[in-house]
Amino acid sequence: QVQLVESGGGLVQAGGSLRLSCAASGRAFSSYTMGWFRQAPGKEREFVAAINWSGGSTYYADSVKGRFTISRDNAKSTMYLHMSSLKPEDTAVYYCAADSRFSWSLSHKDYAQSYDYWGQGTQVTVSS
After folding, report:
1. What is the pLDDT of residues 53-71, one digit of tens each?
2. Residue 67 in contact with residue 84, Cβ under 8 Å?
3. CA dist 127 to 16, 17, 20, 28, 56, Å?
């Protein structure tokens, strides 16, 4: 079983930055594909970014490319999402997700069903 806890959300002005963290329990974090998703009120959950087991490969939604950076520290069993140049449309609950089944690539990791563990979410609100 994998337990994920997000933190770092909050209120920020447009153009500002935030860093989200996702702390994972378990002993095999370094083998997991990890991802971030977000969901705004009344909208579908959408993919934000994914990172492979080593951190050597990343993948971003077009809406956040150039603004968000996903990273991980396997020694700390933690994944991060650094968000900059934030826009009001980035306002959402951000969810951390893990795929505990080892894979060599990020193929299909923009689909929520590719992940088998989820955190509780952290609210990010960007004011204009």
Report:
1. 999 999 999 999 999 999 9
2. yes
3. 10, 12, 17, 38, 33
